[in-house]
Amino acid sequence: MALSVARVRAGGKLALSIGSLFRYNLEMARKSIEVIPKKRGRPATGKDPLVAARLPPKMIASLDKWAKASSVSRSEAIRQLIERGLEK
Fold first, then answer.
1. Which residues, other chains included, contact 76 with Cβ-Cβ below 8 Å and sequence gap of 6+?
2. Quick check: 5 and 13 in contact, CB under 8 A?
3. Which residue has the higher pLDDT, 62 or 25?
4. How would residue 66 be classed by pLDDT, with cut points 50, 70 and 90?
5. CA distance linking residue 55 with residue 61, whole number of Å
6. Is the pLDDT assigned to residue 28 strictly greater than 80?
7. Rounded to an integer, what distance in angstroms lies between the CA atom of residue 78 and that of residue 85?
8. Distance (Å, whole) CA 6 – CA 28
9. What is the rounded (10 degree) CA torsion for 88, 86, 76, 45?
10. Among residues 52, 76, 53, 51, which one has the least CA distance to residue 66?
C-alpha cells in the first residue's frame, strides 16, 4: 500500500494512504447540490384552454370596431359574441 505525506498546520507531517485522498474527492462529489432544470417557454397566463381561429381581415376589422364600441378587448369581444350566438 502506497503512502502519501500531507502537511499539518503546525508544520508536522501526517502519513495518508493514497486511497484516502481519492475517497475525499468522491465524497465531495456525492454531496454536491442537485441541479433543478429550468422550465422552458413563457408561463401560461390563463387557465382555460386556447382555441384559435383564422378570420378574414374584414371580419377582424369589424370585430375590433365592435370591441372598441363595447370598451372590451378583442378576446372578450369574441367571447361575448360567441355567447350571444349560442343563446339563440
1. 67
2. yes
3. 62
4. very high
5. 10
6. no
7. 11
8. 19
9. 160
10. 76
Q: How many angstroms separate the CA atoms of 84 and 47, rounded?
A: 22
Please identify which residue in the block is written with the cell numbers 508536522.
Answer: 12
3-state secondary structure of 52: coil
| Cβ neighbours of residue 5 closer than 8 Å, sequence gap 6 or more | 13, 14, 15, 16
Question: Nearest to residue 76, comparing CAs of 58, 59, 87, 64?
Answer: 64
Helix axes 57-70, 74-87, angle to 10 degrees: 90
Q: Residues 74, 44, 87, CA angle at the centre, nearest 5°?
A: 40
One-letter amino acid for residue 7 of the chain: R
Cα separation, 20 vs 24, whole angstroms = 6
Q: Which three cell numbers stand for residue 42?
A: 413563457
